[in-house]
Amino acid sequence: MKAVTTKSTITIPPPNSSGASAIRVCRDGIDTLGNASEGKCEPDVWTMNSTLRAFGSSGQIETMEKCYEKFQSAGIEPNIKTFNILLDSYGKAEKYEKMSAVMEYMQKYHFSWTIVTYNVVIDAFGRAGDLKQMEYLFRLMRSERIKPSCVTLCSLVRAYGRAGKAEKIGGVLRFIENSDVMLDIVFFNCLVDAYGRLGCFAEMKGVLEMMKKKGCKPDKITYRTMIKAYKIGGMTSCAKELQGLMRMPDETRLEMGKPDFR
């Protein structure tokens, strides 16, 4: 039987601990790997994934890689979650060559990609501004009959907004019309932000109508994003109207409907 103590030592920080404290706990846990066999406490792939995620999410890539090597030398084999963690960590650290190497390894050894895998790599290449690779992966995802999620669409919209591709955002919206993807407030806020960046104020305003049709209420982030865009665009009257709308109770705001900016 595999003991639970190694997992707990590595992954569970003290109450109210900071991120740095959590990493120290992980470091202490890694030090126990060398003595694991003596204490009959065997780490497993769950232990490995939790440890890699802790270091990877904090940007400590070299430590993450050393841990991965230690776990492998202990005979622990990676699974799809392991590779998703590596991909996400490399992507956020902008280490795209290493990310591509992981992708090639997965293909070589026939690890089937999941929705999480696709979301991670699509977002990473989108953030890097590599729209060609991002779009290729999106097409590949659909050809594999893996249904894009709201997370996928957020990544596309965010990337197109940063790249100044308003027409591409329109393509995402057309895709949505012919799909049953459940949209949430995060997606609409991404859409508002993208149109605001591009100075497409009519389209940005239209997002509020889209939200109404989908039964999704704007939140403070929605309005603040729009206000920021209007101010940058020199549309101070529109920004003031929205600020006034934000001060109203939710019930009154809903009765008034969307702002009538002219």
Automatic annotation (TrEMBL):
Keywords: Repeat. It comes from Vitis vinifera (Grape). This is Pentatricopeptide repeat-containing protein, chloroplastic. The gene is VvCHDh001071_3. Belongs to the PPR family. P subfamily. Gene3D superfamilies: Tetratricopeptide repeat domain (1.25.40.10). PPR repeats lie at residues 44-78, 79-113, 114-148, 184-218. It comes from the Eukaryota. It holds the Pfam family PPR.
